[in-house]
Amino acid sequence: MLEAAVRAGRDRHGRLLLTDVAALPLRTGALDAVFGAGLISHLPEPAADLRELARVVRPGGLLALFHPIGRAALAARHGRQITPDDLRAEPNLRPLLAASGWRMTSYVDEDARFLVLAVRED
């Protein structure tokens, strides 16, 4: 994916890194925002990993968790049902974010997209 990003010129305005989300090689408060496409369901330790993302984002900075398909549509595509313990469900994700240094400001779960926006707390 990084090679494709470089071919598309995505490295012109910033540095692309292949790194472990649990130990980001960035100073505290170095970023204004994080955009995580398809990220949340792949975090090995969601609470700790979201705390690490909060560490590298300045207070007041943003977190966007995106997926190009909503939870119900994704579950249907894989022949599954949505379960109450789904990490991306708002009642599960909101407190997880809050405990990790984020305040959820927007939650959209539609067939065509999943998008959560959160602000880094002080």
Mind explaining what this structure looks like?
- The chain has 122 residues and is an alpha+beta fold.
- The chain has one domain (33-120): Rossmann fold (3-Layer(aba) Sandwich).
- Helix content is 28%, strand content 29%.
- It is built from 4 helices and 4 strands; from the N terminus they run αβαβααββ.
- Strands 1-2-4-3 form a 4-stranded mixed beta sheet, with helices on one face.
- The longest helix is centred in the middle third of the chain and has 11 residues, at 46-56.
- The model has no long low-confidence stretch (mean pLDDT 94).
Report the major sheet: 4 strands, mixed
Count of folded domains: 1
CATH homologous superfamily identity:
Vaccinia Virus protein VP39
- Uncertain spans, ≥5 residues at pLDDT below 50? none
Can you list the strand order of the major beta sheet? Answer: 1-2-4-3
Distance between the termini: 33 Å
Alpha-beta content class: alpha+beta
Q: Layout of helices and strands, plus pairs?
A:
Blueprint (H helix, E strand, L loop, with lengths): L1 H6 L23 E7 L8 H11 E11 L3 H7 L12 H10 L2 E9 L2 E8 L2
Parallel strand pairs: 1-2
Antiparallel strand pairs: 2-4, 3-4
Task: Describe the structure in brief.
This protein is an alpha+beta fold.
